[in-house]
Design the sequence.
């Protein structure tokens, strides 16, 4: 098995691949993916920071909150704001419809969105970073099983 954080990330990639039709199954479970113009639009999914706290009622449990970063990339055209917003709609609704990440988490809630433009690539790129705070628990001695 894998760390619950990895299981959560992989589940979100699967959910987005199935539900975000505007990127045609170009959802990648890593932040290290070289996107070319031909790859756009696309989404990358990765874990950012994670906080944890010890709970000592019953089995010693680690209550965790991981920031799952979902980056949507589009070609920067005059409509790039509309394009990233349209993809964001599909991302937000797909994750909301799997609120407990298939039972791995207590909740997955959007905590912020940051929209950017970059002219540094071969083609100008617009992007939206959606951050989801995913709350989950593990036993302190079994981080591969969600509680």
Sequence:
């Amino acid at each position: 098995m894998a760390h619950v954080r990895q299981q959560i990330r992989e589940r979100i990639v699967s959910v987005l691949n199935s539900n975000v039709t505007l990127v045609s199954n170009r959802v990648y479970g890593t932040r290290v993916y070289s996107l070319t113009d031909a790859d756009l639009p696309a989404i990358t999914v990765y874990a950012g920071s994670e906080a944890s706290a010890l709970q000592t009622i019953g089995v010693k449990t680690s209550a965790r909150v991981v920031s799952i970063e979902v980056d949507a990339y589009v070609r920067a055209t005059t409509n790039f704001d509309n394009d990233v917003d349209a993809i964001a709609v599909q991302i937000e609704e797909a994750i909301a419809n799997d609120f407990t990440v298939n039972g791995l988490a207590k909740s997955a809630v959007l905590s912020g969105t940051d929209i950017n433009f970059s002219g540094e690539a071969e083609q100008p790129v617009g992007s939206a970073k959606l951050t989801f705070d995913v709350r989950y628990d593990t036993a302190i001695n079994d981080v591969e099983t969600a509680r």
